[in-house]
Structure formats: C-alpha cells, structure tokens
Design brief:
This protein is of the alpha+beta class. It has 3 helices and 5 strands. It is elongated, with a radius of gyration of 21 Å.
Amino acid sequence: MALMVGLTVMMVIIASVLPLASAEAQRDKETELIFRGLQYAEGIRCFKLRYGRYPTSLKEMYEIRPRTLRKLWKDPMSNSMDWGLIGLTAPVAGVPVGPGGAPPGGGGGFSVATPTPAPSPTPTPGVTSPFGDTGLGGPSAPTGPVTGVYSKVRKKGYQTFQGHEYYNEWQFTESSLSATLSATPIPAPGPGNPFK
C-alpha cells in the first residue's frame, strides 16, 4: 500500500514538473533562434559592405573567402538547415506578403532599392558550389538576393521578437540588427563598468 502511495505521489510530481521543463527547453530554443538569426543578419550586412551586393544564398557567405559567416547554422525550431529567406521586395520562400509588397506587420527590413553592382567575389579554390539554391534548401528553390532569414515553423513562442509572437514572423535582417542594438540597454558609467 505504501509503495502504491509513493508511486502515485512520484507520478504527480513528475506530471507537474514536465511542463515546466518543456517550457524551459522551448525558451532556450527561442533564445538560440534569435542568436542564430542575428548571426545570419550580421553576415548578410558584412557581405553587402564587402562586396557591394546581397548574397544569392546563405552558403555563399560561408564558402566565399574572406567569409562573412563563420558557420552555417541550423534553425533550432525545426533542427534543420531549411531557413525561410527574405528577398529585396518580398520573401523568397513562403512568407505572406501584405499590401504594396510589404510583409504583414510592417517593413521588417524590406527595401525596394537595388544593390549597387560590384564585382562578384571569387570562390575559394577547391570549394565547389553552384550558388543556384537559396541558402541551404534544395536546388529547386528560387534564387535571388538574400536580405534576411526567418524560421519556417509556425508556432506561437513564449516570448515576442520585435512585436511578433509566431516564429515564422521573426525576421532577421539588417533592420532587426539595428532595432536589437537600440533595444539593448547601455550600462551607466560608474564603478564596475569598464566603459566609463
């Protein structure tokens, strides 16, 4: 009888702790999604500064020397390399477009400006890549200048990113970099602050 009571109590405790552990794991994935998305946005920004144009794929930022991306990151929400890509005037792969070609909920880094043509970077010897795919998806995906990335997972998050709740609405572009930096508090001068 005591064993049955003990097992019942243990099951109740496990049932109450499991959702908390699951929620914590999901929050960790969300934090990782933001980090990885901003890494891609920074890589795109650096590529544009260095070569005078946007990359045609995510792989191009990694394979062209000098690199503007130190690693090809997986989408932590789907645990795959299948990121949604944002183009110059509309998403390249599947994000709904609102009135006037803008994404729902605002600009999100979209621009109708055409990048200034510049000499293409030279591929590193020994690295072969037909930059005909978008990022890390299949070769049948459309190509074009990549200005940002987003997760293709449509699920409501525990936190919001720039006012959006669903992961597939979290767009990581040059403008999200500046918005993230402006939202980060700068420590006040004083003791213990090395930036006085």
